[in-house]
Amino acid sequence: MLPGSLLFIATISRVSLDFSERLKAMPEGWLHAMGITVTHATQDEVRCELTIGPEHLQGYGIVHGGVHCGIIESLASIGAALYALPRGQSVVGLENSTSFVRAVRAGAKLHSVATPITRGRRTQVWEARVLDEEEKVVATGRVRLLCIEADQLLAGKTVTTPLHRE
Predict the structure, then answer these.
(1) How far is residue 116's CA from residue 111's CA, in Å, rounded to a whole number?
(2) Distance between CA 66 and CA 34 in Å, rounded?
(3) Is the CB of residue 40 less than 8 Å from the CB of residue 46?
(4) Domain residue ranges of the chain, discontinuous segments joined by +
(5) Which residues contact 65 (CB under 8 A, 6 or more apart)?
C-alpha cells in the first residue's frame, strides 16, 4: 500500500467518527443561535435535538417553517460535508424541499435525524425527519447538495469550515 493510500484511509476513519462534540464546541452559527444541539454526526447519519422557545415561533404561536427547513438543511449539510471532506471536497446546498406535517408550540422537545439517499461524485441527496417526543413526524425534507472541489471558489472565496480543522 502506498503512503498516500494510508493517509486517505486514516482520513476516512477520522470522518467516520462522531463529530458532534466538535460541532457543539462551535460558538457561532445558526444552530447555536437557535439552541439546536447536534447529538450525533457521522457521514452516514446526523441527529440533533432542541426545545422549542419563543425564538422559534411565528405569529400564530407555532414553530416557524424556516426552523424546520434550517434543521433539515443543516443536518444534511453536516453529513454530506463529512462524506465529501476525505475526498478533498466541500458541499453547498442546491435545493431544500421541506413539508410541514404537524404544528408544535413552545415547550415541545423535538429531535431530528438525517441520512443519505445517494452520494455521488458531484451531488448528494439527503433526507431528514423532525419528530416530537412521541415519535410523531413534525416535518420531513430532502436536500440536494453540490460537491465542490477544494480549488473552487464559492462567492469569491475558498470554502473552509470548522470541520476542516484537526
Answers:
(1) 17
(2) 11
(3) yes
(4) 13-164
(5) 58, 98, 100, 139
What pTM was computed for the model? 0.83
The three state secondary structure string of the chain is CCHHHHHHHHHHHHHHCCCHHHHHCCCCCHHHHCCCEEEEECCCCEEEEEECCHHHECCCCCECHHHHHHHHHHHHHHHHHHHHHHHCEEEEEEEEEEEECCCCCCCCEEEEEEEEEEECCCEEEEEEEEECCCCCEEEEEEEEEEEEECCCEECCEECCCHHHCC
Which of the four pLDDT bands, split at 50, 70 and 90, describes residue 161? low
Instruction: Kindly report each contact of residues 148-153 with a partner whose C-beta sits within 8 Å and lies 24 or more positions away, as own/partner.
Output: 148/89, 148/90, 148/91, 148/92, 149/88, 149/89, 150/88, 150/89, 150/90
Residue with cell 476542516: 164
> The domain at 13-164 falls in which architecture?
Roll (3.10)
Q: What is the pLDDT of residues 134-148, one digit of tens each?
A: 999 999 999 999 999
